[in-house]
Please model this.
Amino acid sequence: MLALSAEDSAERAARRLRRERKQAEGELASGLTFSAVFVVLLLVQGGWFWIFPLAFAGFLPAVKGFLSLRRIGSLRRLRAPAPDPQTEVLKIARRQGGRVTPALVAVDTPLSVEEAERALDQMVSGGYATMAVADDGRVEYEFREFLPPPDPGR
Model:
């Protein structure tokens, strides 16, 4: 049996959430529709008979659909993982050709400048990057894996 990659399982979870959301929207819509019909029948024809279909075919499905939509929305918020600062830094470094600054990382990620600098310093201490001060005084972090290959003509 093949193991599912993280992307495959995330896609399956997203499909399941879309299917549950569609079902909850259907329950809410049908519950509200039946509620409207039975309220009209109750007002036009009178009698207490229409209260039971109103409750069981209209009101309860509408409430169930509404609560399901709220649950799905809260699940979506819970499942949104917080970005890993070092992964975010690596993505920016690859895109920028191997050289980044804390400000550049902060602009392109949800990290603050301080968080970006902290993540970059951790990567330097772990040996994944080197830190250098440019001629203009900027602190740059260099990721050798993402630097362009040296020109053989030089």
